[in-house]
């Protein structure tokens, strides 16, 4: 097992109600298994995952285990609740090697009966004034997107409603609009915002209330705008969220959930309970974006996912093999993730 650090600047910061993301640092993991070299990526986002230091410690410990143990020992040494990004890095490398050894694209390793060439995706638009927000949505629509997710909750509800209204005035009505408040609203603000977002045809709002407030989210459902939970899944069992009837949609971030396999399992569980899974990145480099794409590709009729985040990075670990056209992302059909480990370069 090999671990190499990297750090990549964003081309422009992503501003959310909760944080401003301007750079992504992490580790490329390589692991030899069944005659193949698999590649993975551990890109922690503190607050969502462990810190960079804790991720490094997790991977260092795992390297020691790998020196005289098998892959099962390594997986068991990486706890999804305490070091989810480190576990994601190793688990992805292992899955990439397994899928390569079986000569199938990773999504088919999850579901051998599936054929999936494209996954629908949303464009991700950060906080900004109404004009800037609408211009970003117009650019996305011109580039072929038919679903946009707007970050909200950084401004007053009045200002956010003005932003969404401006978007609605400027783009075709068949463009799907989603919002993501990243936990910023009080009960009163959330109820008011949802009342006013419903006539603007916003399909769902992600995390209107703080993560712990499952009851509050359950009460917000059924008012014309779907309720999606994201932060509520950080450090909490998905079963408890499903049991609380708190969501119409679950946002599944493989980097936060401890790997692509965990995310895939939880997506199927959500579906069984009538909750729609949506897979997203945490603004990752190309290896983790591909892993998330394969998770989404393994889910039949998946809703638009938050995977089109590659153009946020000013540099990347390797060329991105995917393209987005007409609102969907192409899925590599070569074996594994669809990336050649020798093309993955860190600056270390
Ligand atoms: O879902 C998307 O469109 C992209 C991913 C995204 O928004 C995100 C990226 C990093 C951290 C948090 C979030 C989020 O969904 O809240
Ligand atoms: Mg979110």
UniProtKB/TrEMBL annotation:
InterPro entries: Enolase-like_C_sf, Enolase-like_N, Enolase_C-like, Mandel_Rmase/mucon_lact_enz_CS, Mandelate_racemase_C, OSB_synthase_MenC1, OSBS_N. Its EC number is 4.2.1.113. SMART domains: MR_MLE. The keyword Signal does not apply. One of its GO terms (biological process) is menaquinone biosynthetic process. Gene3D superfamilies: Enolase-like C-terminal domain (3.20.20.120), Enolase-like, N-terminal domain (3.30.390.10). Pathway: Quinol/quinone metabolism; 1,4-dihydroxy-2-naphthoate biosynthesis; 1,4-dihydroxy-2-naphthoate from chorismate: step 4/7; Quinol/quinone metabolism; menaquinone biosynthesis. Residues 322-333 have a biased composition (Polar residues). The keyword Magnesium applies. Keywords: Isomerase, Lyase, Magnesium, Menaquinone biosynthesis, Metal-binding. The active site is at 151 (proton donor), 253 (proton acceptor). It catalyses: (1R,6R)-6-hydroxy-2-succinyl-cyclohexa-2,4-diene-1-carboxylate = 2-succinylbenzoate + H2O. Residues 319-348 are annotated as: Disordered. Transmembrane segments: none annotated. Residues 130-227 form the Mandelate racemase/muconate lactonizing enzyme C-terminal domain. Mg(2+) binds at residues 180, 206, 230. Its cofactor is a divalent metal cation. GO terms for molecular function: isomerase activity; magnesium ion binding; O-succinylbenzoate synthase activity. Belongs to the mandelate racemase/muconate lactonizing enzyme family. MenC type 1 subfamily. Converts 2-succinyl-6-hydroxy-2,4-cyclohexadiene-1-carboxylate (SHCHC) to 2-succinylbenzoate (OSB). This is o-succinylbenzoate synthase. The gene is menC.
């Amino acid at each position: 097992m090999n671990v190499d650090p990297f750090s990549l600047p964003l081309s422009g910061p992503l501003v959310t109600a909760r944080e401003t993301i301007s750079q992504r640092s992490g580790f490329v993991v390589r692991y030899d298994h069944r005659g193949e070299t698999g590649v993975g990526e551990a890109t922690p986002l503190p607050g969502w995952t462990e810190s960079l230091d804790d991720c490094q410690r997790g991977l260092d410990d795992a390297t020691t285990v790998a020196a005289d143990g098998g892959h099962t020992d390594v997986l068991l040494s990486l706890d999804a609740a305490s070091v989810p990004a480190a576990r994601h890095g190793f688990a992805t490398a292992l899955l990439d090697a397994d899928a390569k050894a079986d000569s199938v694209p990773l999504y088919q390793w999850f579901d051998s009966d599936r054929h999936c060439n494209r996954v629908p995706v949303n464009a991700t638009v950060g906080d900004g004034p109404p004009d800037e927000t609408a211009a970003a949505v117009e650019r996305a629509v011109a580039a072929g997107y038919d679903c946009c997710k707007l970050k909200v909750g950084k401004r007053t509800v009045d200002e956010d409603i003005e932003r969404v209204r401006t978007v609605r005035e400027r783009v075709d009505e068949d463009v799907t609009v989603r919002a993501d408040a990243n936990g910023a609203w009080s009960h009163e603000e959330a109820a008011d915002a949802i009342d006013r977002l419903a006539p603007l045809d916003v399909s769902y709002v992600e995390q209107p209330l703080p993560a712990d407030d499952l009851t509050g989210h359950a009460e917000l459902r059924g008012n014309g705008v779907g309720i999606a939970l994201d932060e509520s899944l950080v450090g909490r069992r998905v079963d408890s969220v499903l049991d609380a009837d708190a969501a119409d949609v679950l946002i599944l971030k493989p980097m936060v959930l401890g790997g692509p396999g965990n995310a895939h399992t939880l997506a199927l569980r959500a579906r069984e309970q009538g909750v729609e899974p949506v897979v997203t990145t945490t603004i990752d480099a190309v290896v983790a974006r591909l892993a998330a794409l394969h998770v989404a590709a393994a889910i039949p009729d998946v809703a638009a996912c938050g995977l089109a985040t590659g153009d946020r990075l000013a540099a990347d670990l390797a060329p991105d093999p995917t393209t987005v056209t007409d609102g969907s992302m192409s899925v590599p059909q070569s074996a594994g993730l669809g990336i050649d480990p020798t093309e993955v370069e860190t600056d270390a």
